[in-house]
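Cross-check.
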Amino acid sequence: MGRYAERVYLALHLLRKHYDVMIDEDCESYKSFCFKMGITNKYSNGIDFMKNYLNDGSNPESIIVMLERVHDNAMVIREEITSETLSYVELSILFMQHAGANGKTMEELQTVTDYMLAFWGSVDERIENKHIRNIVKFGKFVESADLHIRFNYAPKRIQGIFERIIDTLEKEYYICNEIKLEEAKSIFYTDNFNKTEKLDKTLALDCINNLFSS
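Predicted model, tokenized:
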């Protein structure tokens, strides 16, 4: 649930930047977005991309499907996360459905971003079971690290997210793959990491995405 929720939040944030480029500079910049995001470019043009990546319920990579996955996962632990936390996901889905039917602009989708921020605030405030809260936030930080790596954020920024992963794992160490954790530490905790201009993305993503124990 945490990964899907963070993917929705960050995908919308990252998409805004590419959308501005699509409008003002390069109408095909959506191709770069797809490549960095690691999703299939199945779109005929920028208009098709904006419509279907956001609202196509048959597209497993779309924002609306990601929200539905958050909802499905949340329903399993509804009593633990509380109805209030779940309501922000439901509001996001309703807004996206309305947006798809009424041609909302990218700027208006800030509403969904706000709902997802409220969702995370509610996770912190409303989930009393610390183990569930930590696992949800672990998923959040893993997805955040994944997308920051894919979109070439500064190593210092990525390291900060990794430190939050470590902080969470100190509370729930049993959920992680210890081998991948040590490999990740060897990447993100080197003395010269913050000075590195280029990161071995393949290795870094492999470590980050396999931190959950199998």
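Residues 129-214 form one domain. The radius of gyration is 18 Å. Passed to J.P. for a second look.
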